[in-house]
Every structure is written in C-alpha cells, then in structure tokens.
C-alpha cells in the first residue's frame, strides 16, 4: 500500500470527521491505489470523529469542560492508531497463510483508473487554468451531496429514535443492556442513551452527557466508546459510500467496535491514573474529613496522606502514558522495517 495514500486518508479522516475517511478510501479503491484488503483495513481506522466535534460539541457544549474534550480526543486518536496496528499485524499473518486472491486483485488493479484502462480515464485531463472552474464545481457538488447525505441519515435516525422512544420500545430494548452495565458497575440509567448512541452518535452522546451522576467518569467512558464506534447511522453512511466498490462493510463494523472498546479502556485508565482529569464527586472523602474535623492533627495527617497519594498516582499516570507512547513508537518502527 502507498504510505502517502494511507497517511493522507488517516490525516484527513481525523481532521474532517465522519465519513470523510471512508470517502477518500473509496476513491482510492475506485482508482486502484489500494487493494481490497488494504482498503478494508484503512476504512477501520481512517474514518473517525473530527476534533471540532469532540472538543467543542462534546467537551465544551455537553460536558462544559475543555479537559474532557482533550481527553476524549487523545484517547480517540490513540484508539484508532491501535486498531490500525492490530489490523496490520493480523494482515501480515494472513498474507503468509493465504494468497488465493492475488490474481483477482491484479486483474482489478490493471483495469482500474490507475492504469488508464478505464473508459472514464480517457476523459480525464491535467489540472490547468482552463478546466479549474469545472474541477472546483465538481468538488463543490460532491461536497454538497455528501453533506446532504450525512444530514439525511442523522435526521432519519433521529426520527427513528423518537418513534422508538414514544412507543416505549427503546425503554424495553435498553433493558437488554442492564446485565452488561451491572457487570462493569455502570448506572443502569445509561442504558437508554447508550442504545440511542449505538443507533445515532449525536443523540447518544447528548443523552449520556445529560445523565446526572456523581461518577462523571462513567459518562466520559461511555462517550468515548460511542465516539469510537460511531453508531449505525455512520455505518450506513459508509456503506452507501463504498457501495460502488468491492469493499466489504463487515471488517469496518468489527474494527469500529474494537476501536470503541479500546477508546473506552484508554479513557478509563487516564481517568483512573491521572487525578486532575477525574471530576468524580466521592462522598467517602467528605465523610472522612468531617469525622476528623475535631482533631487538627488528624486533619493534617489526612491532608498530607491525600496529597502524597494523589501525587503518587499522578507520577504513575505519567509513567504509564510514557510507556504507552514508547510501545506505539516501537511498534511503528517494526512495522516500518517490514
């Protein structure tokens, strides 16, 4: 795979948000710049939520905190990189085991626009001042059609969620998530907005952020999962985009679900080991301080213990972040050498 193509799709997917990454990968596949396996792998980690949506809409507008938006953005980026590395390693093993589709892939590439054997390629011209207006017009038309498609899917799924909510179907279906939430000690009030977020990202994140809880880390972790997964609304957007190619939607679904899980794990670890990121309100601490308020010596000891404890957790968090980046760097260098 061309590293420039993969890097461009990854960068634009992060900057622009859903579903720009899928549109770029689909164009690459249509023009023969990537193989079928490469295109399906690129889909899994290049189609992501944009920083503007995460920082402003989720971080500032919904949670009212810039740190939360930055945390969600960092874990979102780390999770998509992790998925890309995992899929790259799996693909290397699969290629060693099986090479059945090589002849089919070579035939596809030879008849693609890249090799000039497609009928449409005869009509293509180099970019110059004469056809610059036509190119700009086509780009604007494509952008408008993509925006209308995105808005249409959001509206359709918002209506579906509203209908399910009014018919109390969403409440009944959300009960299926109770055992899973109990397993990870989450409040069952998150079941309904989590299910809505699995259907449509914006409505789900909005619902999760609006749940009042003293453990706000639960809201943030579940939001990280939804941002990584994207929801079925984004899934259908991607499916409509890649429908003109031979790319399959199944690897994308598995990859985005894996990214959602990894993003939630990274977010949980960051909130657990970096104290200043955690905004949880814990009653145990207030009870501890109130019970020892009569004794100044005990208060001093408790305060000192709390300070050194939080400082130790902070140092451990910094070390863990350094180790994570060190592991990513080593994996990147190994993959680059292969």
The class by helix and strand makeup works out as mainly alpha
Radius of gyration: 24 Å
Question: What is the string of SSEs from the N terminus onward?
Answer: HHHHHHHHHHHHHHHH
- How many individual β-strands? 0
Write down the overall mean pLDDT.
77
Q: Note the main sheet.
A: none
Question: In terms of quaternary structure, what is this?
Answer: single chain
> What is the percent of helical residues?
over 70%
Q: What gap, in angstroms, lies between the N and C termini? A: 13 Å
User: Any low-confidence stretches, pLDDT <50, length ≥5?
Assistant: 113-125, 283-295
Discrete helix count: 16
Total separate domains:
2
């Amino acid at each position: 795979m061309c590293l420039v193509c993969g890097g461009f799709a990854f960068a634009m997917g992060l900057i622009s948000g859903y579903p720009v990454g899928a549109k770029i990968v689909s164009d690459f596949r249509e023009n023969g710049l990537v193989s079928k396996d490469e295109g399906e792998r690129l889909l899994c980690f290049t189609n992501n939520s944009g920083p503007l949506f995460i920082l402003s809409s989720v971080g500032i507008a919904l949670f009212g905190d810039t740190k939360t938006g930055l945390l969600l953005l960092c874990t979102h980026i780390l999770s998509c990189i992790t998925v890309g590395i995992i899929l790259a390693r799996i693909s290397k093993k699969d290629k060693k085991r099986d090479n059945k589709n090589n002849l089919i892939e070579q035939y596809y590439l030879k008849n693609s626009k890249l090799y000039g054997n497609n009928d449409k390629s005869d009509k293509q011209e180099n970019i110059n001042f004469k056809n610059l207006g036509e190119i700009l017009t086509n780009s604007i038309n494509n952008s408008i059609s993509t925006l209308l498609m995105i808005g249409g899917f959001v509206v359709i799924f918002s209506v579906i969620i509203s209908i399910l909510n009014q018919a109390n179907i969403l409440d009944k279906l959300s009960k299926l998530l109770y055992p899973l939430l109990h397993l990870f000690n989450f409040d069952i009030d998150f079941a309904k907005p989590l299910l809505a977020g699995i259907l449509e990202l914006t409505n789900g994140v909005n619902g999760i952020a609006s749940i009042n809880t003293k453990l706000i880390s639960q809201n943030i972790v579940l939001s990280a999962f939804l941002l990584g997964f994207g929801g079925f609304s984004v899934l259908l957007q991607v499916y409509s985009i890649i429908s003109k190619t031979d790319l399959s939607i199944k690897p994308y679904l598995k990859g985005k679900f894996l990214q959602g899980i990894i993003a939630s794990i990274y977010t949980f670890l960051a909130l657990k080991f970096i104290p200043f990121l955690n905004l949880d309100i814990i009653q145990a601490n207030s009870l501890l301080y109130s019970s020892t308020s009569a004794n100044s010596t005990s208060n001093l000891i408790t305060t000192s213990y709390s300070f050194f404890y939080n400082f130790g957790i902070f140092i451990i968090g910094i070390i863990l972040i350094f180790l994570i980046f060190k592991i990513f760097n080593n994996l990147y260098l190994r993959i680059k050498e292969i």
